[in-house]
Amino acid sequence: MKVLKEKFLLDYKNTTGHSEIHLKDFFTRPIVRFLLLFRLGEKNKLFYILQRLYGRRFGLEMKSENCGSGLKIGHPFNITINPDAVIGNGVILTKGVTIGVEKGKCPIVGNNVRIGANSTITGGISIGDNVVIAPNTFVNFNVPSNTVVVPGKAEIHNRHTKKA
Description:
Blueprint: H1 2-16, H2 23-28, H3 30-40, H4 45-58, E1 60-61, E2 72-73, E3 79-81, E4 86-87, E5 92-93, E6 98-100, E7 108-109, E8 114-115, E9 120-122, E10 126-127, E11 132-133, E12 138-139, E13 147-150, E14 155-158
Parallel strand pairs: 1-3, 2-5, 3-6, 4-7, 5-8, 6-9, 7-10, 8-11, 9-12, 11-13
Antiparallel strand pairs: 13-14
């Protein structure tokens, strides 16, 4: 239960920007309610059923066991993640993201990955750490760490990070 609490607190902090829980967020932000049910559903069937029902209201289809901590859902609508896909820590999802199966295999998404709106990731591929996938991008190939993937003719561009 301690792990679930830590995961939810990181999800909450990444989603709201608050380091402490504010009760008003549960009343004003539907995504906070979803994330709570999402994490509690890992261990409790009742919460899992509630999470599935609440998630359908917003088009959120995902399974908590395969998602790392610090998940941020920027625009909580129409996000579909195959139950067999693996999502790393600190991943940011936006509206319309699909992570799906192709030929019976699902993607593995690394840590600190930002997936833009209406992007699709499919197949038995691996997305490295610190990757940015631009909006409206279809990815069905392995992506190395510290890169940016842009739509159109899918190309990989080096991502230069500044070190302090």
